[in-house]
Design goal:
It is a single chain. The chain has about 425 residues and is of the alpha/beta class. Among the domains are: about 100 residues, Alpha-helical ferredoxin (Fumarate Reductase Iron-sulfur Protein, Chain B, domain 2), CATH 1.10.1060.10; about 110 residues, Rossmann fold, CATH 3.40.50. Helix 4 crosses helix 7. The protein is globular and about 60 Å long.
Length: about 425
Amino acid sequence: MIDEPLNAVYQEVSRCNKCGFCQPACPVFQITGLERAVARGHNAHLRDIIEGNLTMTEEMKAPLFECLLCRACVSSCFPAVNTPENVVAGREAYLRELGQPRFMRFVFRRLLPDPSRLSRYIRLAAAAKNTGLSRVARTLGVLKWIGKDLEKAEDLLTRLPLYSLRGRARLQRDSPGASERFRVAYFVGCGIDHAVPEIGEAAIRVLASAGCSVQILDNVCCGLPAYGHGDLDAARHLARKNLDILSGLQADVIVTECASCSSFLKDYPRLLEGSGDAERAGGFSARVEGLSQWLEKIGFEPASSGLRGKLTFHDPCHLGRYQGMKDQPRALLKTLPGVEFLEMREADWCCGAAGTYNIFHHDQSMRILDRKMDNLAHSGADIVVTECPGCYIQLAYGVRRRGLPVSVLHLSQALDISPVEKP
């Protein structure tokens, strides 16, 4: 007996005509050559399960959870089958049938809904990372207890900051803009808050320089990590919690510089479809914009940020493929004095970060990253810019790993005219 998640996508799964045009577009298929990794393989598996020709067993974990959810297959599919949504439904059905690991359930249900608890755990992780304790744990094999690839992913960040964006003592709760033409509510993503707060600080400075008063929100996680792993109940809980926290918000727009957050926040109406929260989700999501989207809309003209050299842009999947925004960041970067913009080959090819993909499927992620690094090296750029903290961390790791003479920046850092040193 197949439960609701898969029944809900049966019609969509059935639209796959098995043509195979998804194969050359799929980053995972390109490195594995396995039919189970490509869109038509996913849809065939799911259809067989729904029709009772296949049973949901542990053998389904690999094909279901190896998908990047990058939507590259959708772009090359003539009927535009929404395979990523089908795969998420399959993951939800898998978790209901076989259970969710306790560690992931703890993260999605206990940590992400509670920013103060999450912050405490992150600070412990930062202390372990920065003192070398995590490397000792890696040597002893302790990290394998959580996941087989976790110890391999331990070097993705060289250090973890000892402060969060919200907790930074010198960061004011409200940052007035030069002329305060616009009231911006700033949605703080988890990665920005705890892993790369300097990106958030740069974004706040850029918004202020654009004439925006910036209100830093007390939001919780947007819910995308839980959704991507198939825990839709946890994702809906986080979405409702954000709607409760941000009800009555007095602002012209809700801005985040995390493409994954902006994409998922805009998707709240679909996530909560059929519930009593769908209407207020629609009103909330209509006010959400990404950083480049908002700056382009208000006609922001970047001043000199001190950058010099040849610059290129990597499209985060949740910005380009999910939101259809490719021109906005490029338009901003092309107006920067002192830089020459170069278009990178396969700029919209996934870098392999994909949320926690580089942690739980590290080897495959690195092989996908290798293709991105080849294209970056071929571009001749001195600087690569992106608009997603996950992509930023992955690209920076790839540059260090390959030894490329390339600086990695988030869009907010590229546009920041402050004297803060560029990484």
